[in-house]
Amino acid sequence: MKRGIYSINQLLVAPWMLLLLMLSAPVHAGENVSHVEARRLQAAGEILSFEKISGIARSIKPGDILEIELERNRKSRMYIYEVEILDAKGVVWELDINASTGELIKLEIDD
Predict the structure, then answer these.
(1) Is residue 2 in a domain?
(2) What range defines the domain where residue 76 resides?
């Protein structure tokens, strides 16, 4: 086989193997949670939706949401939404919100 040419089997199997490796890897504390896992957790009722968290975050700190990430805490193993909001003064805020309850854990100016 020439270099740079792949068989159809290689092209079809490689993405599935990568997906299986990603899904089989344990979620370590402090790591981002994949969108696939986030959807599973939401469907199981273990975490609130992005939409619900967005509303909670904006009620705490009005502004434009720049980013929302779902992470798992190192010590407590709790799921936490990390939300970045740009306020009207141009300040970026970071909010950590309990993904299960919607409670604010931390509010600080993002560096």
Answers:
(1) no
(2) 8-109
End-to-end CA distance of the chain: 51
Average pLDDT over residues 4-21: 47
Place of tokens 């939401």: 42
Q: What CA–CA distance (Å, rounded) separates 79 from 39? A: 13
Buried b or exposed e, range 24-41, using 16+ CB within 10 angstroms: eeeeeeeeebeeebbeeb
Asked whether residue 55 is assigned to any structural domain, the reply reads: yes
Query: What is the per-residue pLDDT across 28-73, written as a single tens digit (0 to 9) for each?
Result: 447 889 989 999 999 999 999 999 999 999 999 999 999 999 999 8
**What's the domain count of the chain?**
1
SS (H, E, C) the chain: CCCCCCCHHHHHHHHHHHHHHHHHCCCCCCCECCHHHHHHHHHCCCCCCHHHHHHHHHHHCCCEEEEEEEEECCCCCCEEEEEEEECCCCCEEEEEEECCCCCEEEEEECC
In a domain, 3, yes or no: no
